[in-house]
Specification:
Blueprint (H helix, E strand, L loop, with lengths): L1 E5 L6 H11 L4 E4 L10 H10 L3 E2 L3 H6 L10 H13 L2 H8 L4 E4 L2 E4 L14 H9 L5 E3 L7 E6 L2 E6 L6 E5 L4 E5 L13 E7 L4 E7 L3 H11 L3 H9 L2
Parallel strand pairs: 1-2, 2-3, 5-6, 6-10
Antiparallel strand pairs: 1-11, 4-5, 7-8, 7-10, 9-12, 11-12
Helix pairs in contact: 2-5, 7-8
The structure holds zinc ion.
């Protein structure tokens, strides 16, 4: 099986389409939440994911878009964008987002947005948090998003280390064997690791590899769409820097 793993699309349709074109023919698309929020095209992103049969989990922005109290914890720009999102999303989008579970197990992987121990909110940014996340998962490997930073942690016995991916490259890979892995594909629609290109992961269970790819997309067009929608300027500007 060749699976495209994506996360944190955040209503950025042009970034999503660039990723899907780059990934090419795959057997499945798994998403790790935050499908909407920040970006200008929440309905179109959900329509695209529904059309290709993507399966996935709920992020904090997806929960907030459906009316959840998660919005109380957002910073002012995120909150402003979420209030806009709540106003514009169509009912089928809300229904699709509402149906997303907090966690999902499939093909030997547990999918969550945040972490194994807190699927909605925890940011996994350290080896210790990655190890704790895997302890709270029953599958060999785990997949998470939320940080918008691609990452791979491997646990062997009780030792945990960060493997990568390599920064600044277009492609980077790790082997699936040799210990439990927690893998973060990075963000499609709003990368925060200093590389503005969309980030995604391909899991190839036959080859036994997980590989990250970065894809350029038309950031200027997304910036214009955000400006036209009246979304916060800082959210559009950060797309150019990947921060
Ligand atoms: Zn996010």
């Amino acid at each position: 099986m060749r699976i495209a793993v994506i996360s944190d699309v955040h209503g950025n349709l042009l970034a999503l389409d660039a990723v899907l074109a780059s990934a090419g023919a795959v057997d499945a698309v798994w998403h790790l939440g935050d499908v909407v929020g920040y970006g200008p095209e929440p309905d179109a992103v959900v329509e695209r994911l529904a059309a290709i049969g993507a399966i996935g989990v709920r992020g904090n922005h997806d929960a907030a878009a459906c009316g959840g109290t998660e919005i109380e914890w957002f910073n002012p720009d995120a909150r402003s964008a979420m209030e806009w999102t709540r106003q514009v999303v169509a009912e089928p989008t809300r229904a699709w987002l509402s149906a997303l579970p907090e966690r999902r197990e499939t093909g030997g992987f547990t999918l969550v947005h945040g972490s194994g121990r807190d699927p909605i909110w925890e940011y996994v940014t350290t080896p210790a948090a990655a190890a704790a996340s895997l302890v709270a998962m029953d599958t060999p490997h785990g997949l998470n998003g939320h940080t918008h930073v691609p990452a791979a942690y491997r646990v062997v016995d009780d030792r945990v280390g960060r493997l990568g991916p390599d920064r600044g490259t277009s492609e980077s890979a790790v082997a699936l064997g040799g210990g439990r892995l927690l893998l973060n594909p990075g963000s499609v629609g709003q990368p925060r690791d200093g590389d503005p290109r969309a980030s995604y992961l391909i899991v190839d269970t036959d080859a036994g590899t997980a590989s990250w790819t970065r894809v350029a997309y038309d950031i200027v067009a997304v910036d214009s769409a955000m400006r036209a929608a009246g979304l916060p300027r800082r959210l559009a500007e950060r797309l150019h820097h990947g921060l």
